[in-house]
Amino acid sequence: MLSLQIQNVKEFMGKLLKEDIFDHFEVRKVEIVSFMHFEINHIAAKEDFTTWAVLREYVFNIIKGAEAPTLIKIVFSKNDAENIHENAAALFLNFHYEAGEAYVTTGTAQKVFAMDKSVDHAWEDWVNAFFSKNKLL
Q: What distances in angstroms separate CA 101 from CA 6, 45, 73, 77, 94, one per listed residue?
């Protein structure tokens, strides 16, 4: 599992909420705590996840306001996991914002159990390259 601390939270949040960098990711869950507790959970068929492109504006409208939310959690997944590694069933990118700090962690699920960490390493390499390319750290 890869864990990255976001150094410039304001800049990262701008890219997350106002740019299309994450639009190709599917969204498994969103949780926001501000003046109320908001949750967006995926409940459709297994293969039919909503993309960030569809949800980004809704999330932005919940978050914008005079005061920053106290908590934001977003679970993204990569829709073409098998293109990253043939044994990848699901690849997750977990965003967590709380108390002015933001982190991203990775997670994987394998199609067939294997003792090696090749799925994890392939996903971590992809995420590091994605974050470098988009200047997210």
A: 7, 34, 12, 22, 14
Query: Who's near 77: CB < 8 A, 6+ residues apart?
Result: 25, 26, 27, 28, 49, 90, 91, 92, 93
Helices (H), the chain: 9-18, 52-63, 81-84, 118-133
pLDDT in tens, 65-102: 878 899 999 999 999 999 999 999 999 999 999 999 99
The residue to which tokens 């995420």 are assigned: 127
pLDDT digits (tens, 9 = 90+) for 122-132: 999 999 999 99
Question: In the 8-state DSSP scheme, what is residue 64?
Answer: -
pTM of the predicted protein model:
0.93
C-beta separation of 91 from 77 below 8 A:
yes
Long-range contacts, 46-49 (Cβ 8 Å, 24+): 49/77, 49/79
Number of structural domains the chain divides into: 1
Nearest to 31 by CA among 55, 2, 3: 55
Burial label for 26, CB within 10 Å (0-12, 13-18, 19+), is buried
Enclosing domain of residue 16: 3-133
